[in-house]
Amino acid sequence: MAQFTLYNKHNAPPNNDIITRVDCDCEHVPLCSVNDVQLRFLVPDDLTEVRTLCQEWFPIDYPLSWYEDITSSSRFFALAAVYNLAIIGLIVAEIKPYRNVNKEDKGILPDSMGRTADVGYILSLGVHRSHRRNGIGSLLLDALMNHLTTVERHAVKAIFLHTLTTNQPAIFFYEKRRFTLHSFLPYYYNIRGKGKDGFTYVTYINGGHPPWTLLDHFKHYASKLRHTGSLCVWMVSRVQQMVRWFYHKLLTRFNAIE
């Protein structure tokens, strides 16, 4: 188990063009021990190092203000995986009310649940090329999941993200972690002047669930009918017992009078 060191928590980004990326290389460079990996929150001094890593990992050229936000704002969950004093992995997520999500993501939760629910949005997840396929991505995602499944975060009902439709390593990674495809977003990304399609992936926590389909409603009412049917059978049985008891008492009294 990696160490989880709680430095001053600082992180954040508010950009619609953020890509969640988890790349896999054929080359597998094992760590000495996963116990040597330390998790800590980003701090302002990490800005230059994080910027260099993100420029390598992601096809989007983020503005400097984005890096200032994710290394200094406490509004977001930004966690680094550190090995030999260097950042080798990073996850950035935002926790916000479901009512504030963008229009394309409104169908993640049922309307009745969404009125009071929060959701977690993974803006970025990346691992240094030299340390991929060592479980670092899973370590970072597990840390976020653990953070959002505490009693204090019970209002968070779903975690979702966007990724390029061509980012097969990321899709494989999230599907393996029980994220499911929610929607297709044509031309969602603008990368170097070209429109790129995206996917929305989601997983549910703390009792959250997707909006019901017609089949879900049918199953629900069928279950209700089965329950009601069992209740009716029980009530009829009780009435029959009472009628038999009353008839027996009446017959006994009639025989006594004779």
So what's the CATH class of the largest domain?
Answer: Alpha Beta
Helix residue percentage? 25-40%
What is the helix tally? 6
User: Would you tell me the structural class of the helices and strands?
Assistant: alpha+beta
- Beta-strand percentage? 25-35%
In the sheet with the most strands, the strands line up as 1-2-3-4-5-6-8-7
CATH homologous superfamily title of the largest domain: Gcn5-related N-acetyltransferase (GNAT)
Please state the second-level CATH architecture of the largest domain: 3-Layer(aba) Sandwich
Under CATH, the topology of the largest domain is which? Aminopeptidase
Global outline:
elongated
Write the layout of secondary structure elements.
Layout: E1 3-5, E2 38-41, H1 47-57, H2 64-70, E3 76-83, E4 86-97, H3 111-114, E5 118-127, H4 136-148, E6 156-164, H5 168-176, E7 180-191, E8 194-204, H6 214-257
Parallel strand pairs: 1-2, 5-6
Antiparallel strand pairs: 2-3, 3-4, 4-5, 6-8, 7-8
Give your account of this protein's structure.
There is one protein chain. The chain is of the alpha+beta class and 258 residues long. The protein folds into 2 domains: 3-211, Gcn5-related N-acetyltransferase (GNAT) (Aminopeptidase, 3-Layer(aba) Sandwich); 216-258. Helix content is 34%, strand content 27%. The chain has 6 helices and 8 strands. It has helices at 47-57, 64-70, 111-114, 136-148, 168-176, 214-257; strands at 3-5, 38-41, 76-83, 86-97, 118-127, 156-164, 180-191, 194-204. An 8-stranded mixed sheet has the order 1-2-3-4-5-6-8-7, with helices on both faces. Helix 1 packs across helix 2 (64-70).
